[in-house]
Amino acid sequence: MSDKTGIITKIQRELFYVSIGNNVYPSKAKGNFRNKKITPVVGDKVDIHVENGLGFILKIHPRSVLLHRPEVSNVDKCFVLSSIKSPNINLMLLDKYLLMIEKNNIDCVIVFNKSDLVSDDEKKIFADIYRNIGYKVIFNSNESSHVNEELLKEFKNHISCVIGPSGAGKSSTLKKLFPNENFVSGKISEKTQRGKQTTRHIEIKMVDENTYVLDTPGFSSFDLSFLKDKSEIKNNFLEFRKNSSKCKFNNCEHINEPKCEIKKLLESGEISKSRYDNYLKIVEEYEKIRRY
């Protein structure tokens, strides 16, 4: 019998798998967590009491962050993977992911997969949109015979979450970067050009002593339940946040107000039209949800 501290790396069939060094202990949550309406999630740092190889979770350490889709805690870096072609890029979904990541103040890398399918001109269009905002953008092709060292380096010494739409090649990319780990990959349906969802449960893998990687299910849609207030939308569009102090009104929503710096930058081309249009759609979607 002993008490240990580790990280929940997988949840399956009401068992919480806690990794401590090279050992993994299937564990159960004590009833007092249910009474307090606290549910352990993947990524939680926990204290467990071990008896005969079975752990009992005694304490959940304070979380630095809690994401709700996927539900995971203590992530310090997010990789948003998207293809530009096969399937075609969904900028609305990408911008929603970025909104959630910014709200949680997590470092972010945008990875455009299947770069072998697009021209340099096409790459530049999308790279410029997000690099000009301040995001790191990496192009990747899993058809290459070489591992993308630039991308691999970004994972080192982080607890990383990999998110993106179905068919973006998340599992294939992780399998290429970390061949010793069992990341499941799937194929694109030629008929629908949508990925067959292959990630069936949330699991974080320890790829070395200080590096953890979480693959997540692919989603073709993404709701706004992570937002508590409409102002969180404008405050977490990076280019809006950086320039809104120059607007005439402190509470400017960058829609109908006069002397709005954001609309001025939009007109001059310094803010992407796709980003601004998606901002308007997200605000509209949020207001519609709040009405019902």
Automatic annotation (TrEMBL):
Binds 1 zinc ion per subunit. Zn(2+) binds at C247, C252, H254, C260. It is found in: Cytoplasm. Residues 73-220 form the EngC GTPase domain. Its cofactor is Zn(2+). SUPFAM superfamilies: Nucleic acid-binding proteins, P-loop containing nucleoside triphosphate hydrolases. Keywords: Cytoplasm, GTP-binding, Hydrolase, Metal-binding, Nucleotide-binding, Ribosome biogenesis, RNA-binding, rRNA-binding, Zinc. Residues 63-222 form the CP-type G domain. Its EC number is 3.6.1.-. GTP binds at N113, K114, S115, D116, G164, P165, S166, G167, A168, G169, K170, S171, S172. GO terms for cellular component: cytoplasm. GO terms for biological process: ribosomal small subunit biogenesis. Monomer. Associates with 30S ribosomal subunit, binds 16S rRNA. This is Small ribosomal subunit biogenesis GTPase RsgA. The gene is rsgA.
